[in-house]
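Much of what follows relies on a compact textual record of a protein's fold. Here is one such record, which you should read through line by line:
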Amino acid sequence: MMQIKITSLSCSGEGIGTHEGVKVFVPNVLPGEEVEVELTEKKKKYWRGKQNKILSYAKERASPKCPLFGQCGGCQIMHLNYPDQLLTKQTRVIEALRRIGNLEIEVAPTLPSPLQFGYRNKIQLPVLFDGSEARVGLFRKNTHEFVSIDQCSIHCAIGDKVLQTLLPLIQNKQSLRYILIKSAPLNQETLVIFVTRKTGELQKIANQLMEQCPQVKGVIENINPQETNTILGKTFNILKGNAFITEKILNKNFLIPANAFFQVNSQMAEILFQTALQFAKIQPHETVIDAFCGVGTLSLFASDIAKTVIGIEVTHSAIDYARINGKLNKAENVDFFCGKSEELLHRFKKADVIFLNPPRKGCEPSLIQAIHQLKPRALVYISCDPATLARDIARLNSYRATKIQPLDLFPQTMHVETIALLECVNAL
């Protein structure tokens, strides 16, 4: 047992202190707190421990709303009051830009989420069976230890109601592996995906669920017999209803299928898209490329202003729905292409603005090279990882970052979304 003072938070939300010159990582504590720690792991360059007792509390500490905080691993900083969560995320972006990108640039205060709880429009839960009794839940962080849940404080209310309706219906359905619930809280619709080892057991449940929950617009069966960490298999069967939900963002409707990416905080998605468009300052004569367009949300908002919009997306189902969404919203100046941006960008002779919204790993070097060759006047980079954002800004060396705006799409967690405006140096 040892006593340490916590001085900072790691990017995963663990408190960091030192003992005998070695960094010690401790979950569920805050900077400024004196903590009695029991060591659980010793490595050469760092140790890990669990807090046995908090000897002095930080004034920023909040009382966690969820009784499972510290167990399921889904929320890392629910014990930190909300204004300080926002400050922590701003600091995380500043430090990543400085440390990885060697950038000294003003970072705006983090834009808050309208909802601090009940914001998440998607949840995926493993199902375990104790005999015939089904339990749903999550795994403790970095373990295979199962924590049962029947509700989640950051999951939207419409989705949680569906989850609670489902629990008594799935008993003795041994082939069931995961339940995914995708919701459109602004439009009050929900889609349920059952991941199963084999087909044929869940039709009755689909019928019962849609009878009991009119907000459920479709129930889908996904077949995945492989015992791996990959949740979804390749085969989708519609058991009842639609293969999509419809969400209303700002003034447009978007159809969202089961396996396409969509921002998990619908209310903050509106703020995200508005901010991205403000940064871009699109002119009516300009051509815009949306290099990771998903189901076409940002592309279609840009089409209201630009002369021409090109959307690129690697996922076939997403690009199919982007085209459907283009027709649904009567956009005649948008074309969507399926493929990798780094392989398709060279096809286009001109782009004034490029929107980038890559996965967590950031942009491929070949994409950055293609951007340098195309020479748009501005890039609007939407990032879910400050580290890869900082790396890519440094690589985009013919552009200068002029605005950095963090947004809190993920309250109670350490995750932060960031929008960066990069302007071509020759255009400044």
The mean pLDDT is 95. The radius of gyration is 23 Å. Residues 82-99 form the longest helix (18 residues). The chain is about 25% helix and 35% strand.
